[in-house]
Design a protein that fits this description.
It comes from Flavivirga rizhaonensis. This protein is α+β, with helices and mostly antiparallel strands. It has 6 helices and 6 strands, in the order H-H-E-E-E-E-H-H-E-E-H-H. The chain has one domain: Aspartate Aminotransferase, domain 1. Helix content is about 40%, strand content about 20%. The protein is globular.
C-alpha cells in the first residue's frame, strides 16, 4: 500500500491506530542505528532510508533523480514490512539475521524479495531490526550497489 504522504510525519499521522506504535518503534530503532551518510525521507510511498544525492550524486540507476535506496519501512494491508536489499547482497548478513531471528522470535521468518513481513505485531524483533540497520556503512552499501550494477552490465 503506497502512501501519498510527502513527509515521514504525515505518513506516521495517517497510519491506522493499531499500526502507529509498532511502526514508530521500528522507525526509532532504524533512526538510532542508521549509518552516517544516510537519511530518512519518503521513498516509494513508504518511510525510506537512503543515501542522499549530497553523498552519492549518481542516485539510483533506475531513476537517477531518486537517491540510492537502502531500507524501507511500510504499513501494508496485512502486515508491517521492512525492506532491506542488504540481506540479499551479503550472504553473511543473511546468515546472521536468520540465525538471530530464530533465537529471538517464536514465529517462522516470513520473507519475500527484500521484504521481511511481520503479521504478528507482538513478535516484531525491534532491536534486531535496529541492529540490521547498522550492519552496513554508507560507503560499503555504495560499493555493493556499484559492484552489482557493474556485474549486471557484463
Amino acid at each position: 500500500m503506497q502512501s501519498k504522504a510527502t513527509t515521514p510525519q504525515q505518513y506516521l499521522d495517517e497510519l491506522p491506530e493499531e499500526r502507529k506504535e509498532p511502526i514508530n518503534k521500528l522507525r526509532q530503532q532504524i533512526l538510532e542505528n542508521l549509518p552516517k551518510g544516510m537519511e530518512e525521507q519518503m521513498n516509494y510511498g513508504m518511510l525510506g532510508y537512503v543515501i542522499p544525492h549530497s553523498v552519492y550524486p549518481d542516485g539510483y540507476h533506475c531513476d537517477p533523480k531518486l537517491p540510492l535506496p537502502f531500507m524501507n519501512l511500510a504499513s501494508q494491508k496485512n502486515f508491517i514490512a521492512v525492506y532491506s536489499m542488504a540481506l540479499y547482497s551479503k550472504k553473511e548478513l543473511m546468515d546472521w539475521f536468520t540465525s538471530e531471528y530464530a533465537k529471538q522470535c517464536k514465529y517462522k521468518l516470513d520473507m519475500g524479495k527484500s521484504c521481511i513481513r511481520f503479521k504478528k505485531i507482538n513478535d516484531i524483533p525491534f532491536e534486531l531490526i535496529g541492529e540490521l540497520t547498522g550492519k552496513i556503512e554508507a560507503d560499503e552499501w555504495i560499493n555493493i550497489y556499484e559492484t552489482a550494477i557493474k556485474n549486471r552490465k557484463k
